Amino acid sequence: MSTSEPNTRGVDRGLADMMNAVFADYRETQPPSGPVRRDTELWSSLDQLGLVRLSGSEEAGGSGASWYDAAELFSAAVRHGVRAPLAEHDVLACWLLEKIGAPIDAAARTVCTLDASGTATAVPWASTAEKIVVIWRHDDIHLVADAAQTDLRITPGSNLIGEPRDTVSAEVSALAGVTVTEQLLTKLRLRSALVRSIQVCAALDEILELSVEHTGARTQFGRPLSKFQAIQHLIADIAAEAALARAATETALATAVASDWSAPNLGFLVAVARSCAGHATSVAVRNGHQAFGAIGTTIEHRLHEYTRAALAWRSEFGSVRYWDEEVTRAALAAGAAGLWRLITD
């Protein structure tokens, strides 16, 4: 198979190789230090390569790539420890603007939903975005506006790995809103949730790879750590949980893509993916740090880049408990007669 042919996940291998090369080069020259901010030079380079709006339609200025390509882009960034609002900009904010027919310029964006007081908390990358797609409720409808950052009040914050998670406040009466349907907002919620599941899965895979590499190379009492049964159990549990989370996530993504995010059981599948990814994180983080011992807790070692990331992302766009309850509600609603079909359809 040539490098230009798609692999089994539908991702062009040449495109995937380019993504990995770009992020690897960036990470080599820009090691992490201090608070996480959107690197405008990296953003410009990604934009020139057509990666910033990878999944947007060509008619709206995007690259016309698939969701599988976009998922590979997010995963590649995670693998190399590169933080950027690629998902928030492309498959969330710009996707919503494209769906409502709004013009889309080159500004970097994120998206948020305001509460009744006109405030949204823990908004990803708001303080480093140039525009924020703001959603709010007015009477019985929802409105959306593509607002400049300067038209909003932003209080900086961060998540566990230092990514911007800010508080956004707005005077909605001053915003020119366009009506958005409940159906689009439901799709946005599911897309947001699945993005984090994809990122968590990529982090879990890296925790597993680092753990296998470390325990195979580190010796104790004259033999590699990987030869000890207790260590084997730790690694096997990480592998099993990571595989379960990825299987659930890829099932949800395949259903979403095939149905244009409209399948009747998609909410259940996304909830399962988020639940599996959330619980897998607990196992992978605990076992990974046990396998590494003291060195895994140091700032110099890369393990924490993935363990802390997985812990942060699993709680965004819905906590583990929230998604567990969504799975439970769907199962109870299906009843004994419909549960098997809910799981297998």
From TrEMBL:
<dbReference type="InterPro" id="IPR009075">
    <property type="entry name" value="AcylCo_DH/oxidase_C"/>
</dbReference>
<dbReference type="Pfam" id="PF00441">
    <property type="entry name" value="Acyl-CoA_dh_1"/>
</dbReference>
<comment type="similarity">
    <text>Belongs to the acyl-CoA dehydrogenase family.</text>
</comment>
<dbReference type="InterPro" id="IPR037069">
    <property type="entry name" value="AcylCoA_DH/ox_N_sf"/>
</dbReference>
<keyword id="KW-0285">Flavoprotein</keyword>
<dbReference type="GO" id="GO:0050660">
    <property type="term" value="F:flavin adenine dinucleotide binding"/>
</dbReference>
<protein>
    <submittedName>
        <fullName>Acyl-CoA dehydrogenase</fullName>
    </submittedName>
</protein>
<feature type="domain" description="Acyl-CoA dehydrogenase/oxidase C-terminal">
    <location>
        <begin position="196"/>
        <end position="318"/>
    </location>
</feature>
<dbReference type="GO" id="GO:0003995">
    <property type="term" value="F:acyl-CoA dehydrogenase activity"/>
</dbReference>
<dbReference type="InterPro" id="IPR009100">
    <property type="entry name" value="AcylCoA_DH/oxidase_NM_dom_sf"/>
</dbReference>
<keyword id="KW-0274">FAD</keyword>
<dbReference type="InterPro" id="IPR036250">
    <property type="entry name" value="AcylCo_DH-like_C"/>
</dbReference>
<keyword id="KW-0560">Oxidoreductase</keyword>
